[in-house]
From TrEMBL, chain A:
This is ABC transporter permease subunit. It is found in: Cell membrane. One of its GO terms (cellular component) is plasma membrane. It is a multi-pass membrane protein. It comes from Kineosporia babensis. One of its GO terms (biological process) is cellular response to sulfur starvation.
From TrEMBL, chain B:
PANTHER family: ALIPHATIC SULFONATES IMPORT ATP-BINDING PROTEIN SSUB (PTHR42788:SF13), TAURINE IMPORT ATP-BINDING PROTEIN-RELATED (PTHR42788). This is ABC transporter ATP-binding protein. SMART domains: AAA. SUPFAM superfamilies: P-loop containing nucleoside triphosphate hydrolases.
Length: 253, 265
């Protein structure tokens, strides 16, 4: 356990040390010393901005992500169990998935406004939808026939078996979607927003507050790491059975 | 009184757009509380027959009636133990939860469920493993979980598809006796598919011998052995040997393509 933590932390520590050393005596305007950046970080983000910028960003991200999760799983289950629906929707789904989500930002902004939260939430939800939806469809299709027959013969509701059985694949989609959500949160704010982490970074850049701009990047990085950590802990607990089952399957082969 | 009636049952699958006639015509009845074994060559359509009985598969023609009612979907009060038992257990649940899940659907109260699960698990000798997940158990133990789930459900009809195919001889003998004792205690009607002729004769009151595909009933053999069966004395009974030899010959003939017999025994 300790060795794993050391292994996970080693590279970031080295990189931060490098950054620190290489910029220590920097006089470049664009590459301020890391020490200076860290000095302004708490004041920049953990005062007023925590409420006015970090909180709205996270709120939009979570709302968009959760919408995508609910809609993606519900639609994915419906499509996954119905061959007819699958045949009808599969080609269009592939098309929508092929569209890079950032391109949606200006389009959605046109309909839902440039500066408000709505357009951001929609952008995040739409971008997150496809990996969740497609993975759910795949997961539902892959549910063991015998498991479904068992559920039917004991008259259990179908979804009570389909959801947990497709759980590992749904989680894989949800994990992909989470990193997309962070990216879209920032991009949608870069395009125009009255508040948010991304909007603040743009604002710092425009006002030549270079150390502050760098702190924005650091905060975004930390946010991404924190979210994926929370996700992993939740997944680890919910899918403990899956790891055991998979290892048992491997061992028996 | 007959609980189960299979009348003119036929099933033709479509495989790669070509019809595959699995079952030509099956007609038989099973009385309440009877234990009927079904044997037949591999690929004869035994699983197909069970799936039709269990309401999981629609026959091409003919029908299955349970207590006089036509089966159109999984009927109430029937439990199925599948051939692929390992895949029929919910891997995300513990042994206890697997056995308990259908009882929740039956709206049993919590104490009743607990009692039923404990009883079923101790009947199959798995009470100690109630907290384990199915994939932590051996094949024989998994099969016993599937059986425990079926008996805790207290079905009026229990359908089992080659349930002991993958367990060792010792466990198999124990499970056979378990099925007999459950059957006597719960007064349940059992349809038991097996490819093991000894097992069919040892367990059943009747043995239904199926022909090769497309399948018909080759012979309905009555097992006139004493009701009290015992692994050693029953299997060394002279009548057991006769019945066994008879069914064995029938299955051999079935494999060669025999489709009709005149009653001989
Ligand atoms: N879903 C299906 N689609 C097409 N053909 C099928 C299907 N299921 C079974 N069959 C075919 O129908 C025939 C009967 O199959 P079935 O599984 O009922 O036989 P079985 O008697 O249970 O065999 P075994 O003893 O090997 O379990 C076989 O030839 C099989 O290949
Ligand atoms: Mg079979």
């Amino acid at each position: 356990m300790i060795r794993r933590i050391v292994a996970a932390v080693a590279l970031p520590v080295v990189l931060i040390a490098l950054w620190w050393l290489l910029t220590a005596n920097s006089t470049s305007y664009f590459w301020p010393p890391l020490a200076d950046i860290l000095k302004v970080l708490p004041d920049t983000w953990f005062g007023e901005r925590a409420r006015t910028d970090i909180a709205p960003s996270i709120a939009r991200l979570l709302i968009g992500y959760l919408c995508a999760l609910v809609i993606g799983v519900a639609a994915g289950v419906a499509i996954g169990i119905s061959p007819v629906l699958r045949a009808l929707t599969e080609p269009s789904l592939e098309f929508f998935r092929a569209i890079p989500p950032p391109v949606l930002v200006p389009v959605i902004a046109l309909f839902a406004g440039y500066t408000g939260s709505l357009s951001k939430v929609i952008t995040i939800a739409l971008g997150c939808l496809w990996p969740i939806l497609l993975n759910t469809v795949e997961g539902v299709r892959g549910v063991d026939e015998v498991l479904l027959d068992t559920a039917r013969s004991y008259r259990l509701p179908r979804h009570s078996v389909i959801l947990p059985a497709a759980g590992p694949q749904i989680a894989a989609g949800a994990r992909q979607a989470l990193s997309i959500a962070v990216i879209l949160m920032v991009i949608s704010e870069l395009f125009g927003a009255s508040n948010g982490i991304g909007a603040s970074v743009v604002q710092f850049q425009r006002s030549f507050a270079v150390p502050q701009m760098w702190t924005g990047i650091i905060v975004l990085g930390l946010l991404g790491v924190l979210l994926s950590l929370i996700f992993r802990v939740a997944e680890h607990r919910a899918l403990a059975w899956y790891r055991g089952w998979r290892d048992a399957e491997r061992a028996s082969r | 009184m007959s609980v189960l009636e299979v009348a003119g049952l036929a099933k033709t699958y479509q495989r790669n757009r070509k019809p595959l006639e699995a079952i030509r015509e099956l007609t038989f009845t099973v009385d309440a509380g009877q234990l009927v074994c079904v044997v037949g060559p591999s690929g004869a359509g035994k699983t197909t027959l069970l799936r039709c009985i269990a309401g999981l598969l629609e026959p091409t023609s003919g029908e299955v009636r349970l207590n006089g009612e036509k089966v159109t979907g999984p009927p109430r009060g029937m439990a199925v133990v599948f051939q692929e038992y390992g895949r029929s257990l919910f891997p995300w649940m513990t042994v206890r939860q697997n056995v308990e899940r259908p009882l929740i659907e039956k709206r049993l109260s919590k104490p009743d469920r607990r009692a039923a699960v404990d009883e079923a698990l101790s009947a199959v000798g798995l009470l100690d493993s109630h907290d384990a997940h199915p994939w932590q158990l051996s094949g024989g133990m998994q099969q016993r979980v599937a059986i425990a789930r079926a008996i805790a459900y207290q079905p009026s009809v229990l359908v089992m598809d080659e349930p002991f195919a993958a367990v060792d001889a010792q466990t198999r003998a124990e499970l056979e006796d378990l099925v007999r004792s459950i059957w006597q205690r719960l007064n349940v009607t059992i349809v038991f598919v097996t490819h093991d002729i000894d097992e069919a004769v040892y367990l059943g009151q009747r043995v239904l011998v199926l022909s090769n595909r497309p399948t018909v009933v080759l012979e309905d053999v009555t097992v006139d052995l004493p009701a009290e069966r015992d692994q050693i004395s029953t299997r060394s009974h002279a009548r057991f040997a006769e019945l066994r030899a008879h069914v064995y010959r029938l299955v051999q003939q079935a494999k060669k393509g025999l489709r009709e017999t005149s009653p001989t025994l």
